[in-house]
Amino acid sequence: MSDSDHGLTTARRRASRARAAWLLAAPLIVLFALGCGYWLGRQQVPRAPALPLLGSAPAFTGFRNQLGQVVNSAQFAGQVQVVTFLDPYCTNDCPLVALHLVALENDLRLAQLQQHVRLVAFNVDPWHTGPAQTAAFMREYGWNPDDTRWQFLSAAPAATRHVVRQGYHVDYEQVSLAAEAAADARAKARGDYVPQPQVANALAAQARPDFDVVHNDMLVLVGPHGHVRWLSGDADSVGDVHLLNLIRGLLQPR
C-alpha cells in the first residue's frame, strides 16, 4: 500500500462511523437545539475543569471573511474561538460540521453567551474558492453570511498554509478525483475499502470540481487570551452540550 493510499484509508476509516451517525442525526440537530436550548441556558451547569494551555493560537493578518472584509486575529481578543477547517465544495464532513456550528450558535444565544464566542472557520481550498463560495456554503447550511459571529476566512495559499498547517498543525491536500478513484480501487482489491457517505452540497453540484480536498476533521477551542485550550480530531461528532460546558469553563474567572 502506498503512503498516500494508507493516509486516505486511515482517515476514512476513522471518520466513517461518526459520519454515518451524523447523516442519520443531522436533520434533527437544529430542532433538538431549539427544543432544549431554553433549558440549557437556565440550568446551573457544573463548573468545568480547568483546561491546559496547549500553546498560542497562530496570529494572522489579511484574511477575508465571507463578506470580503479583512479580518485579523487581534479582532478575537477577549473572546473564545471555536475554530474549524472547512472546504466549501466538501460533500463529506464539512456540511455536517456546518450544521453542528449552527446548532451550537443557537445554544450559545439561548445561554446568553453569544457575545463572548466567535465561530472561526479556515477555508482549506484556497486555490479555487474565496468569499463568494464561503458565503454560499454558509447560506446552504442555515447561516446568514451577514452574521459575522461566524467568520469563514480565506487567504492566499501561502498564508493559509502558514496558519492552518504550520500554526494549527492541521494537514490538508488537494487530490484529483481520478487519483482518489484509483486509490479506492486499490483499497477494494485489498479488501480494506471504507465507503464514504456523501452529503448534498449544492455549491459542489454546481461547480463540479474535479478534485477533493482531504483534510483533518479538527475542532479547536481558543481561549480569551489567545491560547489553544482544547481540541478534538472529530469535529463532526463533538456533542453540543459538552462543547457548551467547555466554553463556559473558559469564560469563567479562575
Q: Per CATH, which architecture?
A: 3-Layer(aba) Sandwich
Categorize the overall geometry.
globular
For the biggest sheet, the summary is: 5 strands, mixed
Mean pLDDT across the residues is: 85
Helix content: 40-55%
pLDDT < 50 runs, ≥5 residues: 13-34, 37-43
- CATH topology label: Glutaredoxin
CATH superfamily: Glutaredoxin
Query: Total number of helical segments?
Result: 7
Backbone CA Rg: 18 Å
Tell me the distance between the termini. 50 Å
Q: According to CATH, what is the class?
A: Alpha Beta
- Strand tally, please? 9
Strand order of the main beta sheet, please?
5-4-3-8-9
**SSE series:** HEEEHEHEHEHHEEEH
Q: How many separate domains make up the residues?
A: 1
What share of residues are in beta strands? 15-25%
Q: Structural class, from helix and strand content?
A: alpha/beta
Keywords:
alpha/beta; five-stranded mixed sheet
What does this structure look like?
The protein is built from seven helices and nine strands. With 254 residues, the chain is of the alpha/beta class. It has one domain (3-251): Glutaredoxin, CATH 3.40.30.10. Helix 2 links the parallel strand 3 (80-86) and strand 4 (117-123). InterPro entries: SCO1/SenC, Thioredoxin-like_sf, Thioredoxin_domain. One of its GO terms (molecular function) is metal ion binding.
